[in-house]
Design goal:
Blueprint: H1 41-54, E1 62-68, E2 75-86, E3 89-95, H2 100-107, E4 110-117, E5 122-132, H3 135-142, H4 147-155, H5 165-178, E6 191-196, E7 200-205, E8 213-219, E9 227-232
Antiparallel strand pairs: 1-2, 1-4, 2-3, 3-6, 4-5, 5-6, 5-7, 7-8, 8-9
Domain Pyridoxamine 5'-phosphate oxidase N-terminal: 53-177
Protein name: pyridoxal 5'-phosphate synthase
Cofactor: FMN
């Protein structure tokens, strides 16, 4: 729909799939109350993740990872896969040498995650400090990747400028030759898991008229495993 006041706008108030082109789509699938929540946000996330899987959400492990560099404060975000969840937090895997997120966390070891599950009209936000997994921990996941992905992790200096696709393909050939006839490929020292240790976790359930249900868990300082839970305005 074009804006008659400012026709230069390329997109204005899209309706997001609503059957009525004059009205935005409404969220009406569910509600969320304090009584519905677990005392632990990790237990609650696990329950919601299982529900997303059961509802057929496509790749519910898909998450936006946001980081920021210091001192300039420049923010960057990208879509990745959460590969692990344990009592310590949420784990993603990547190159931690040349990538933009690697540069960010070297100056500012904090990150934010946002999960969006459209089919169940739910969102989860996570914020907290980050920590690298050990090579031994990362090797466990690395071994589950197909061989091509393990070779690719060694070959790609992620986010560095390439002269052309041929340069990347040549690096792949060099790595393939290096590990020729080897089934066990070690995890690269510059690649591995990064755990986001949650200090804040928010659960968001879409509601009609944008009056969403939002609950925020905040870790109690100095109290292991203790969380304060607050309802937030939508």
């Amino acid at each position: 729909m074009s804006d008659p006041v400012n026709p230069s706008k390329l997109i204005f108030a899209p309706t997001g799939g609503s059957t009525d082109p004059t009205k935005a789509i409404q969220y009406i699938q569910g509600s969320l109350d304090l009584a519905d929540l677990s005392p632990s946000p990790l237990t609650q996330f696990h329950a919601w993740f299982a529900a997303a899987q059961a509802a057929g959400v496509y790749q519910p492990e898909t998450v936006t990872l946001a980081t920021a560099s210091l001192p300039d404060g420049h923010v960057s975000a990208r879509v990745v896969f959460m590969k692990e969840l344990d009592a310590r937090g949420f784990v993603v895997y990547s190159n931690w040498d040349t990538s933009r997120k690697a540069r960010d966390v070297r100056s500012n070891p904090r990150a934010a995650l946002t999960f969006w599950w459209r089919e169940v009209e739910r969102q989860v936000r996570v914020e907290g400090p980050v920590e690298r997994l050990t090579d031994a921990e990362s090797q466990v996941y690395f071994d589950t990747r197909i061989r091509g992905s393990r070779i690719g992790a060694w070959a790609s200096a992620q986010s560095s400028v390439l002269r052309g696709r041929e340069e990347l393909e040549e690096r792949v050939k060099e790595v393939e030759k290096k590990f020729e006839d080897q089934d066990k490929i070690p995890v690269p020292p510059f690649w591995g898991g990064l755990r986001v240790v949650p200090e804040m976790v928010e659960f968001w359930q879409g509601r009609d008229s944008r009056l969403h249900d939002r609950f925020r868990y905040v870790r109690e300082e100095g109290k292991e495993g203790k969380w304060n839970v607050e309802r937030l305005s939508p």
